[in-house]
Amino acid sequence: MKNKRTFEKLMLLSAMGILILASCVPAGNGHYGGGGGRPYGDTRVPQVTGRDLRDARNIIRDYDLRVGDIDYVKTDRRHLDGTVERQYPDSGRIVSAGTRVSLNVYRYEKYDHHEPPPHGGGRTEVPRVVGSRLDDARAMLRRNDLQTGGVSHVQTNHRHLDGKVESQDPGPGARVAKGTSVRLSVYEFKEYHKPDKPHKPDKPQDAVRVPHVRNTSLQSARRALENNRLRVGRVEYRATKQPQLDDVVFGQTPSEKSYAQAGTAVDLQVYRYEKHAPPPADMVTAPRVVGMDLESAKQAIQRQRLQVGKVDFSDTNRRDLHNRVESQSPGPGARMKAGDRIRLKVYRYKGSHGHGGSQNDYVVPHVMGKRLDQAERILSSNGLNVGKVHKARTAVKSQNRVIFKQDPAPGRKASRNRSVDLWIYEF
User: Fold this and answer.
1) Which end of the chain has fewer CB atoms at under 10 Å, N or C?
2) Long-range CB contact pairs, 281-284, < 8 A, 24+
């Protein structure tokens, strides 16, 4: 009996000791700890992509994980040999300790460009071949079980881009069936002969300096030329794959800072995004300008790459028809060569007295807010002349050569060839 009680006491003391020891054991560490809010025995998958296979094995073991299946991916880049290309599960995921991490590892093999591409079932990822030489791009596509489809060419004046891939379809990263054809667009060098730079000639009489209009939109170039008493001549378009270059001027003849006679046509070279259909190279359509005022008609004709020919005037007793286009030749819709001239016939108000009536049958137009060259054209089309031009200083560049006062005032009657004095800002 006494031995039995002694045994029970020993068992009780042993149980109490086990409980005390269990309470002293820590709850977990960095990989298993509950301090991170995860269940006991979980760990985070480390990042091993891009590391050497030996380092990747050690890192995975340090995180209480195991290396799973290892698949090898062919590469023709020697420096990638033995480097981890992809891992599964991905880095950052929480998994149980002991989980296997599968790896894809690069294996260097010299690729034979004449080896036919394997075609089988399944899908593959389209590689990025933009910027590569055409032969290299074909080889990369073959290595990914793809074919080279149609090859188109885009002209460039940059010699270092010749023969390089400009764009691809489907794009890089797309998942497609093996054997799919990838269409390529390749740069083709074409030398652009810029006009010779002038040797700083002296400014001739009645000449203006050609402004710099490259790297601006066609509309801005047109305004800059008109402000310098020049006009847009022939416009040549070149296709581009970059939508941000659409309608941007990249060349001009005559070149900037050279001198030309007022009214000279400046030829422009303009980029056109390939989705837009460029206008015909030689033939254009005559616009309808009947009923427009003379200035608007001139602008509409110039927008069609045509020129204004002879302007005849027809007397009328209707004031509302003054300076309106009565007829045009050729008529609207006629097919014409770019640069051809359209002859206009314009109404001119003469009042109710006919040719023998009063000479004060011309109305002074409103030219304030216009530039001086624009005012000259408007006054001339209304049978009037520019008189004295007074200048006033301004600190605002945009107001340079802008008219802020005129005499006689707008709406006043004046005789034919009457001079109108103008006041303009000078920056």
Assistant:
1) N
2) 281/236, 282/337, 282/338, 283/335, 283/336, 283/337, 283/338, 284/335, 284/336, 284/337, 284/338
